[in-house]
Amino acid sequence: MHPFTYTKARDTREALDAGRQGGRYIAGGTTLVDLMRETVERPGSLVDISALPLRKVTATKSGGLRIGALAHMAETAAHPKVRTLYPVISQALELSASAQLRNMATIGGNIMQRTRCTYFRDVTAACNKREPGSGCAALHGFNRSHAILGTSDHCVATHPSDLAVALAALEATVHLLGPDGERTVPFADFLLQPGSTPNSEQALHKAELITTVELPAHPRPLKSGYLKVRDRQSYEFALTSAAVVLHIRGGVIRAAKVAVGGVGTVPWKLPAVERQLIGERPSKALWAEAAEQAADGARPLQHNRFKVELLKRTVERQLSTVGGTK
């Protein structure tokens, strides 16, 4: 680990001032500390923001929820309003990590975490995300766990967050605070596809902080859930995952939101699947027909072609779990 300075911000002004000077924000540290230990990240200055008042979960006037960026994963998953209104969030959080990590890691840190690509974490390997212009060793290396959607010739790494998949499905909004004031970014625009600049991962301006993540109101009754498929049931990252949100009234699907993880360079929304569902009555045949479109546009690599079929089956299974079958 390389030498660095450490500052603990007492309020947002101190945090932003330190951020303007090039300091890196840290709260739970469950990702950044590991990357520093492995010398993947080498910040010269850390700004501890864990004391900032950004931990509350509050209801919005419209009927949604706002989750503070520094709320811990465990307390967010257990919050009564989250469990009641958006079980897909609770399930995604509880499947994300071990209990010890969930007690430390924050909501903001979870969606900001960097890829688990082995080449990114191996400082001797070529990685455009870690060192722009060096190449992508995963393209022709062992790429079983890598992305099949949203990839480019510069990067094929998956985004590791389970929570981010649920936020994508719910069409959340990220609230930011920076030197130039407050702004909001739709979650769909917050995490960036790699394109030719995979080192640019989030739509953040210099020194900006995530303050809250807002879950919009959705029509009720609302059914939702998260399914994670992995090599082992204990703490592991997804091979595929699916977040499904359905509004069913009078036996007809009135609204549908579906996003998947483990297969995309960012959490991947499935609008074609959603359109297939709206106006239809839940059935096994409908789930299977809609899920056939889940892998549209996929570009599998040598070792992850199995993800195409696995993704379809994952989506079909979760549609059936959330929507029921006849």
TrEMBL record:
Keyword Oxidoreductase among UniProt keywords: yes
Alphabetic keyword roster: Oxidoreductase
InterPro entries for the chain: CO_DH_flav_C, CO_DH_flav_C_dom_sf, Diverse_Substr_Oxidored, FAD-bd_PCMH, FAD-bd_PCMH-like_sf, FAD-bd_PCMH_sub1, FAD-bd_PCMH_sub2, Mopterin_DH_FAD-bd
Secretion signal, residue range per the UniProt entry: none
Ranges for domain FAD-binding PCMH-type: 1-220
Pfam families reported for this sequence: CO_deh_flav_C, FAD_binding_5
Listed PANTHER family: OXIDOREDUCTASE, XANTHINE DEHYDROGENASE SUBUNIT C-RELATED
Designated name of the protein: Xanthine dehydrogenase family protein subunit M
